[in-house]
Input
Amino acid sequence: MTDAEIAILLLSLKVSAVAILAAAPIAFAVAWLLARVQFTGKLLLDAFIHLPLVVPPVVTGWMLLILFGPQGPIGGMLERLFGVTLMFRWSGAALAAAVMAFPLMVRAMRLSIEAVDVRLENAARTLGASRWRVLASVTLPLCLPGMAAGLILGFARSLGEFGATISFVSNIAGETRTLPLAIYSQLQVPEGEAQVTRLALISIALSLCALLASEILVRRSGAKRGVHVL
Amino acid sequence: MSFDISVRKKLGALDLDIRFQSDAGLTAIAGPSGCGKTSLLNMVAGLLRPDEGHIVVGDEILFDSARHIAVAVERRSAGYVFQDGRLFPHMRVRDNLLYAVQLEAGDRHEQGALSDISSFLGIDHLFDRWPATLSGGEVQRVAIGRALLSQPRFLLMDEPLGALDTMRRDEIMAMIERIRDEMGLPILYVSHDPSEIGRLSDNIISIS
Output
């Protein structure tokens, strides 16, 4: 790989890793809420979370622009309070990737939480464990394989994020030009085919690794504990 | 007074209305399956909330709808032995047994209790095993040990012999008799088997 390709690859990995690590606790909280708590407006929350999955990514990017742009309610506040700008920055690309991967992560996590037997959680409570303690000592360890699979799935999804990213943070070399955006750029260049092929192969290899890692993780932890979550 | 219970609860088509008081060590709850025996235990444990009534164990009010008292599950100190054991599959037997103990600080003090109770139940040799590798009788003995080690104020037993063959039943029943006679804990014991109940208690509450 050339230096330029390595730089693109590292940027992609950084954007996706930050996106997933930042989104994971929120995704878990939402997944737990959807799996274990009954409340009014649950259906609405569920639908809202799934929006990025069905809305055109360009629309998601446009909404991020409105909310997180310098003039936007959240973007303006971040700028005033912390001097942080997300627009045209890699951190903005991470935000876009996180939003787009969020529904997939919540889905996988919710399924793995629902697969944990409520009766085991009840048994823990009769033994004196608070709700938090039950979550940490029973629910979380039992849904860990599914949780890891959800994270890697979200990671793979965010590596491929294009539409929301290019609408929100544009296509800036070295800052927001992740793998898909770099491929797009090369497609615009005459005789860029060779470069496109190389970047596309890197992209495919990366996604394949992520999927394999997810599968191996699930099998390994599932077999060791005799718990099959997926 | 061990148990003073008066609860009403509507569960689908079932309209539960159970009232009794008992002094005896082991109070047996009898009745056909599906009549609400397990629901009664769940209400005493705090896993199910009665529509109205009161639940008093010893001198502690666990639930009283008129006075708006409902003690949280984790504060009731109920030693609940479930029909299916419900051991935590991701913990070895030792960690299952010590689950309640590890919630408290300083578990060194409890090592004595662990060895006492596990030798009483004959489960010392199982400490390093995973629950998935235990036989039905072993699961039930570990489940009883886990409940006893939580320093319960009373025991709830939901058909603890339900999943066992005849030989294992005798073995576990002898243990329950010893718990009844030696530990002095009030016990609510649910079963649909009249012979089992007849052997364990002469204080029988029938639910129909």
Summary: The CA atoms of residues 54 and 116 of chain A lie 29 Å apart.
